Amino acid sequence: ILFFVVTARSQLYYTKSEFFCLLSIGKPLPNHATMAWFYYTNIAVQSGTTADLFLGDELAEGGTLYETGASKVDFGALSTAVSDIGLNSDVLIIDELPAKKLIEGKSNLACAPLYYQGAEGENDEAAIDTYAICVTKGQDELLNAINEVLAELGKDGIQALVNKHLGL
To answer: Among 19, 8, 33, which residue's Cα sits nearest to residue 127?
Structure first.
């Protein structure tokens, strides 16, 4: 995950994360999964997440998975979605960090980054989700509060929050 600050007009905190797919080891694991790999697949997502929005767009008319036999399986909790892989769903789409965390110590699960297949002769392109916090220039109190929290959390604190919210 990448964080940086831009100070010209406003303060911008930015991070990006690749979408990853989590799957049962019984299914062949690609180096990276292109969208074509999901044809005729039941794809799990946690409801209300960016992965849910992403998959909804891809399944809709004009999306890369429109009329491919792929379908979405919604789950309220990530832990339930992970438990369902190999039962009612074939694969789970989530962000990179939780995907890597969720496979730790689980020999029956693997993860791979999700890519859009490039046109003939072109490289595949990673499916990336971006997040940002923008603070209007002059809002020094708010900017200082955000900087304080980020500094206080540090890498270990952010990891602890991820673990807490993933139920790990």
So the answer is: 19
* Structure tokens given for 39: 């044809």
Q: pLDDT tens digit string along 119-141?
A: 788 887 777 766 677 788 888 89
Highest mean pLDDT pick, 8-12, 54-58, 135-139: 54-58
Cite the beta strand spans of the chain per DSSP E.
4-6, 10-24, 33-34, 42-46, 71-75, 91-95, 109-116, 125-126, 128-136
Block residue for tokens 């930015």: 14
Output the pLDDT for position 4. 36
Say if CB 16 and CB 96 are below 8 A apart: no
- pTM for the model stands at 0.67
Strands (E) in 37-108, as ranges, are 42-46, 71-75, 91-95
In tens, the pLDDT along 16-25 reads 556 666 666 5
**Sign of the torsion formed by the C-alpha atoms of 139, 140, 141 and 146:** positive
